[in-house]
Amino acid sequence: MFRSMALQAVARRSISSSAVRQGNKVPHKQKLFQEDNGMPVHLKGGSADALLYRTTMVLTVMGVGYVVYELVKAAYPQKKE
User: Fold this and answer.
1) Cα angle vertex 15, ends 13, 20, to 5°?
2) Does some domain include residue 14?
3) For 3, phi and psi rounded to 5 degrees?
4) Number of C-alpha atoms within 13 angstroms, CB side, residue 18?
5) SS in 3 state form for 37-55?
6) What per-residue string of b and e applies to 42-58 under the rule 16 or more CB within 10 Å gives b?
7) Structural domain includes residue 62
8) Residues 60, 63, 68, 69: is their CA dihedral positive or negative?
9) 11-19 long-range contacts, Cβ below 8 Å, gap at least 24?
10) CA-CA distance, 9 to 14, in Å (whole number)?
11) Which of 17, 32, 67, 77 counts the highest number of beta carbons within 10 A?
12) Are 20 and 27 contacting, i.e. CB atoms less than 8 angstroms apart?
């Protein structure tokens, strides 16, 4: 009984105090993403967004290249001797 009450108290304290410490970042993010600075919205998040974008593009190009390679390989089967 005492353990469950103590666990509930600790959980309640950590949940309520973590919300207070973080603050509200939404207005700042809205201002950042609504600026008209010529950047596409998918890159406005900073260097992490740019890294994710470039990684995605590299993997996409490599995947398309591999698919084309496999299609060409399948179109011209090797001759059996």
Assistant:
1) 95
2) no
3) -60, -45
4) 6
5) CCCCHHHCCCHHHHHHHHH
6) eeeeeeeeeeeeeeeee
7) yes
8) positive
9) none
10) 9
11) 32
12) no
Note down pLDDT in tens along the chain; length 81 residues: 767 777 777 777 666 555 556 788 888 888 888 888 888 888 888 889 899 999 999 999 999 999 999 999 999 988 877
Angle at 30 between CA 39 and CA 38, to 5 degrees: 15
Residue 63 is which amino acid? Answer: G
Q: What is the CA radius of gyration of the chain?
A: 26
Q: How many domains does the chain have?
A: 1
What residue numbers bound the domain in which 56 lies?
42-76
Angstrom distance (rounded) from CA 64 to CA 78:
23
Is residue 33 situated within a structural domain? no
